[in-house]
Amino acid sequence: MTTYEAVIGLEIHAELMTASKMFCGCRVVDSVTAPPNSAVCPVCLGMPGMLPVINERALAFAVRVALALNCTIQPHNVFARKSYFYPDLPKGYQISQYELPLGRNGWLDITLDSGKKKRVAIRRVHLEEDTGKLTHTTGGTLVDYNRSGVPLLEIVSEPQLDSAEEVYAYAVSLRQILRYLGVNSGDLEKGVLRIEPNISVRPAGEKALGTRTEVKNLNSFRALAAATAFELERQAAILAAGGEVVQETRGWQEDRRETFSQRSKEEAEDYRYFPEPDLPPLQLDEAWIAALRADLPELPGTRRARYQAQFGLSAYDAAQLSEERSVAEWFDAAVAAGGEPKTVANWVINTLFALLNETGQTLDEAALSPDGLVALLRLVEDGTISHSAGREVLAAMFATGRSAEEIVAEKGLAQISDEDALLGAIRDVLASNPDAVAAYRGGKEGLLGWFVGQLMQATRGKANPQLANRLLREELAKGE
Ligand code: ADP
Ligand code: MG
Ligand code: ZN
After folding, report:
1. Region(s) of the chain under CATH 1.10.10.410
2. Which string of DSSP letters, residue by residue, matches 17-61?
């Protein structure tokens, strides 16, 4: 029996979070909440005679992404006209880049759940404009041009992924980087990030690529992985039965969990690409590119590796802390403020994440500062409060923005760590339980826990547990 291997390349379209559109001054608005056609002008509506002007910020965002993906930047840039007719494209052409993309020959390192790492080559990163949005209703098709002309970045990988799992890891890592760079929210459901796998299979060992299909309309990572897995099986079954895969664009039907044929694939010639005559060629300044490079944040992959190497965190904890830039920077600030990295990591992951989940806040919106957490951890460390009281204090700090010291004082949570104070309470407990004391001294040492419980009751839970244990043992031993 022939076995088949998968070959997959990803095309990703990311809208850039600029204030205005790619070639006009219209605002970029939320495609879900803004009233339809409320952010449009003659340029993005494709009126004859209107001239585009390049948005510098969009260009800077695009260069940031290309640099973060290790691309070579093409300083001499030409926009190209890609002609086709569709009602969501009022100009009859899209301004894009073709022969001279902004970036090429980059790569993205991915890590699979199994821990396996892989470097995936990135073929090109280019800048273009988004189209309008069509909504099909029973009364006819509606068109909203708010999205028309929004800066759009296309990121194309080489066909080097070989499983649904790798596709998933690649897409998740890329989204993480876009969010780190602050150029895209990564919201697949809103369509601001669109991920399209190009999928083929070939007999194992074969060098030539098989015929591919491209799957569109995937609005979650789960759909991406499921559609890829489905498509791989479908194609392998066709080949195994002696058939041929048709090159086409397919959609994903979430309820039936299968792909379906949408349209046959256009070839590049059909688009009649030519240099956009309304825009001058761009010459990017080397110093400007260098400044953008210097301004890149530490990216998630690098951070993850540093957290493991420098702080000895587990791969899992390092991944959790570096997933979002705001969390990673918050964590770094807490460590810089003197927090012990592993302790801070545990408190952030085990306690703080739960609080954030409950309130739906992000760490930078929360009232808790990194210094505040470190101050709290000092109180736990030096035994002023117990670990569990620490959790209670953290929740109160998180809710009110007040300091750990204030909350500990107000709630009376400080532990009794003073030997004399504790000894007094211990002697009271022993004096009022002579039978238990006699039993302990007669050999029932298992009763120690019971005495600790009595002491905790007497001190309303505030006895420092380590100290309480030691003193109790000593006092009980005295009479033996
Ligand atoms: P187009 O722009 O016409 O869709 P490209 O050649 O630019 O085509 O490729 C788009 C994506 O498809 C790239 O990510 C590329 O890696 C991938 N790709 C190309 N050929 C194949 C193939 N035979 N199997 C899987 N992926 C492919
Ligand atoms: Mg394509
Ligand atoms: Zn406009």
Report:
1. 419-478
2. --SB-SSSSPBP--TTTSPTTSS--TTTTT-TT------HHHHHH
Report whether residue 213 contacts ligand 1, using a CB cutoff of 6 Å.
Answer: no
Residues in the chain, overall count: 480
133 within 8 A of 144, measured Cβ to Cβ: yes
Q: Is the pLDDT of residue 403 over 70?
A: yes
Residue 173 Cβ inside 6 Å of ligand 1? The answer reads: no
* Location of structure tokens 């073709």: 98
* 270-292: average pLDDT: 95
Give the residue from 102, 480, 155, 99 showing the smallest Cα distance to 275.
Answer: 99
> How far is C-alpha 120 from the chain's CA centre?
19
Establish whether residue 159 lines the binding site of ligand 1, counting it when its CB lies within 6 angstroms of any ligand atom: yes
CATH domain 419-478 topology: Arc Repressor Mutant, subunit A (1.10.10)
Q: Which of these, 159, 231, 233, lies nearest to 11 by C-alpha position?
A: 159
Centroid of chain to Cα 161: 20
pTM (predicted TM-score): 0.88
Note the pLDDT of residue 115.
Answer: 87
Which positions ≥6 away from 149 have C-beta within 8 Å?
21, 22, 23, 24, 26, 43, 44, 129, 130
SS3 333: helix
Task: Identify any residues that bridge with 261 across adjacent strands, giving them in sequence order.
Answer: 250
Pairing of strands 213-215, 248-253: parallel
**Atom from ligand 1 closest to the CA of residue 11:** 14
For every residue of 431-448, DSSP letters joined together read HT-HHHHHHHHTT-GGGH
Q: What is the token pair recorded at 17?
A: 């979070």
Query: Do the bridges between strand 117-129 and strand 151-157 make them parallel or antiparallel, or are there none, so unpaired?
Result: antiparallel
* Pick from 471, 346, 55: nearest CA to 63: 55
3-state SS, residue 335? helix
The answer, yes or no, to whether any atom of ligand 1 lies below 6 A from the CB of 5, is no
- The span from the CA of 57 to the CA of 423, in Å, is 69
